[in-house]
Amino acid sequence: MPRRRFSGRWFASMAAFFAIVVAVSAFASGCGGDNKPGDSVKHPSGKTELVFQVSTGGGFVPIEYNLTHVPEFSLYGDGTVIVVGPMIEIYPGPAMPNLQATEISEEAVQAILSAAREVGLFNPTFDYGQPSVADAPTTTITINANGTTYQSGIYALGFESTPGNMTLEQQQARAAVGGLLGKLTDLATFESGEIKWEPSEFSSLAVYSLGIDPGYTPDVEPNKLDWPLGDLSTLGNAAQPQGYRKAVITGKDLDTLKPLLAQATQITIWASGDREYNLMFRPLLPNETE
């Protein structure tokens, strides 16, 4: 049985969760927001309403990574947390990402939001500087609280060993944010109760299709499956990059497709009409419609 280990893609998406400079408490204590320390933070309460999200993307990555990328941490108003879990280390890997979900208490939600406020994330105008590293990803942190959306974009978070022209304050700010994100990987810092992770259910699936040129010879022999939902040449709408189409599958169509998804890998060839296709899949999160 294959061992489950962290894949290269896992490390890429989670690179933002680690900062190598230890934050000093003086910085954290000086980065308040709309609430005073100890005050509860008002936030949306619906199961599809986003409260806190971390998404690391961009940089020098393959096209399929950008198309299928799912934010690595999403917290919703009812306490649901959805993360991207480790992928099985085989090639070709599964077609679907390993999304895991759990539910945390309101006390834990408050602890996360308070920690975010303390490290300065309720101040989206702060300049985190730019390390001297090329083609690195940007970590985008979105918080909906106190009737406001706070969003911070931090380029090359975790690369503070190449500070470039960053000030000490910027390095400390990055370290503080990195420390917070590192704690989100297991939630035990914030949740006193038992944390149970289960596969995340989804009700909508984005499917990206790209026709395979005749005569294409893969390096590794893929398995082949028949696409069960109409002709892929006309399904959905044209998408970027050029040549791709995107369709969102829901309801009974999704029920029909799910058993095949368990058999699919990242290089599976799908037959539809008189042509073959490569498909990429991205489950939509509760706050997403397309």
Structural class: alpha+beta
* General form: globular
Low-confidence stretches: 1-35
- Give the C-alpha Rg: 21 Å
Q: How would you classify the quaternary structure?
A: single chain
Number of domains: 2
List how many beta strands DSSP finds.
13
Share of residues in strands: 25-35%
Strand line-up in the sheet with most strands: 6-5-1-2-3-4-7
SSE order in H/E notation?
A: HHEHEEEHEEHEEEEEHEE
How confident overall, as mean pLDDT? 87
Could you give the topology of this structure?
Elements: H1 8-14, H2 25-29, E1 50-57, H3 63-68, E2 73-76, E3 80-84, E4 99-103, H4 106-118, E5 138-145, E6 148-155, H5 168-183, E7 198-199, E8 204-211, E9 224-226, E10 237-239, E11 244-250, H6 251-261, E12 269-272, E13 275-283
Parallel strand pairs: 9-12
Antiparallel strand pairs: 1-2, 1-5, 2-3, 3-4, 4-7, 5-6, 8-11, 8-13, 10-11, 12-13
Commentary on this structure:
This protein has 290 residues and is of the alpha+beta class. It folds into two domains: 176 residues, Mago nashi protein, CATH 3.30.1560; 82 residues, no CATH class. Strands 6-5-1-2-3-4-7 form a seven-stranded antiparallel sheet. The longest helix is centred in the middle third of the chain and has 16 residues. The two termini are 36 Å apart.
